[in-house]
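dude i think i finally got it to work??
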Amino acid sequence: MPAQIGPRALIAGLLLSCTLLTPAVRAATTPSTEPPRPQAVMDALARAHAAVVGIEVTAAEGARSAESLGQRRAGTGVVIGADGLVLTIGYLILEADQVSVVTQDRRTVPARVVAYDLATGFGLVRPLLPLRGIEPVPLGSQQSAEPGEALMSAMGAQADNDGDVAMTQLVSKRPFSGYWEYHLDSALFTSPPVGNHSGAPLFNQRGELLGIGSLFVMDALGDSRRLPGNMFVPVDLLRPILAELQQNGSSRVSHRPWLGLTSSEQAGRIQVVRVNAGSPAQAAGLSPGDLALAIDDVKVTTLEAFYKKLWDRPDPNADVRITVLQGADVRTVTVRAVDRMQTLRKPSGI
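look at this
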């Protein structure tokens, strides 16, 4: 039987999420507005939860992403369109061959991929059959969310489980740079962390969608204090590109230079941690342990600066001059970047 989220459980969870904070969070966050009435919160969150679905994916044979993400993947999505359009995190559906949406009554509905967006990290799927009785969730904005605010996240049902609901709290809004050539100028960070965060929606107390779950992190506060949590991609990034995603399968800014590096930021230097097999970086002779000092003779000391300088060119298939420290030697290598979107197996439906 699907999990039943009762009004008392929802309200109790929200109240507990405000009181069971670590001292570090209490010191760093203070809600700026009075909470809405409990009954209004209960109704809004119940409506939001009803739009949550499970996502089950089988990657295409030979998909490069299977090595890191697995051949079979499961996560969560949320219905945002009257036609059943589902928003999820993009890596779940990357190079997908088969996609299914699982409703809260455990009905499995075949779906097709509508879009995978490299720049934001969002993915869109559309069920091939109607999702009866599911109303789309309204989109909110991170602009209205303040650190200290109690929020709800939900995990969709799968073929073998009923899903779950979790209360958490917004602890910071800040830029995020991923080690896989990914950057957001603003992301949402919550604590305590939710379990199966992949594609999990984040709702405010009005039942509006604020973000989509991407990662587990150990630095949710963004400073030297250790605090486990999650990073959510804000839905503010979706609004300007939603029509484009549905029409083209990706946004224009997703077609940008890609090197094939996994990198970390350490004491003002960019260190190469891993080089993807068959990538432009490998072809140019870059190796784990190299330190990237500059791009096109412009010094870079953060992942954000590294990525933005890399992407600051009109042609994704462009030559990129990278100054690196390899052992004791400083040298400049020319990497012929590629459009990452063109290296991926097309998801079914796009």
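The chain has nine helices and 20 strands.
im so relieved honestly
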